[in-house]
Amino acid sequence: MKQTLILFLVILSSCNTKSPDTKIVEKLYDYDVEERIKELGINLSEPEKPVANYVNSVVTGNLVFMAGKGPRRLDGTMVTGKVGADLSIEQGYEAARLTAIEQLSALKIQIGDLNKVVRIVKVLGMVNTDPSFTKHPAVINGFSDLMVKVFGERGKHARAAVGMGSLPSDIACEIEMIVQIRE
Questions:
Q1: pLDDT tens digits, residue range 94-135?
Q2: 110: which residues sit within 8 A by CB, 6+ positions away?
């Protein structure tokens, strides 16, 4: 009898008592990510359509691979120039922050609700610089700092911050990311 009771309890504890619908409504955050974006004074916009034979993002399983984006201002113009020559580190930081907003805008279009983000997994930040510039991480921090402000600890990510001799249309930086989402 005792063995039967133990076996019953083991089987019962291994059963998932939550329905799939219940799992979907479980919250990843103790706040609304999209409200946090508004509190930060950020307005998400319609991302630009790709001008070549690619897409803004690709979803495979629970990962979203985001194409590289650049720093677009609210008026639609891009931040251009080489950081360390034409732009200060602070201006480069702001360009990376603007790029983060572009990525959030494109991600929202792809997944519908930014509360589905489980984690920002990986970021590749490319900074338009001359060969003597070496403070690439200080520039890409503009992107990373905003991701942490929006997603908290889930916004912390693996990252590379590298210098480039040039970027398309002379933009100050281009950043791509990989995001894990709730399925």
A1: 999 999 999 999 999 999 999 999 999 999 999 999 999 999
A2: 56, 57, 59, 64
With H, G, I as helix, E, B as strand and everything else as coil, classify residue 112: coil
In angstroms, rounded to a whole number, what is the distance separating the alpha carbons of residues 38 and 101? Answer: 12
Q: What is the pTM of this model?
A: 0.85
Residue 56, SS3 per DSSP: coil
Beta bridge partners of 63: 60, 180
Nearest to 80 by CA among 129, 44, 125: 129
> 145, 154, 144: which is closest to 116 by C-alpha?
154
Are 69 and 143 contacting, i.e. CB atoms less than 8 angstroms apart?
no
Rounded to whole angstroms, the Cα distance separating 24 from 73 reads 35
DSSP per position, 159-183: EEEEEES--GGGBSEEEEEEEEE--
User: How far apart (Å, rounded) are the C-alpha atoms in residues 178 and 183?
Assistant: 15
**Residue ranges of domains in the chain, CATH in brackets:** 28-181 (3.30.1330.40)
Spell out the residues 6+ positions from residue 56 whose beta carbon is closer than 8 angstroms to its own: 47, 49, 50, 66, 67, 106, 109, 110
Q: What is the CA radius of gyration of the chain?
A: 21
Q: How far apart are CA 179 and CA 8, in angstroms?
A: 40
- The residue written with tokens 């609304």 in the block is 32
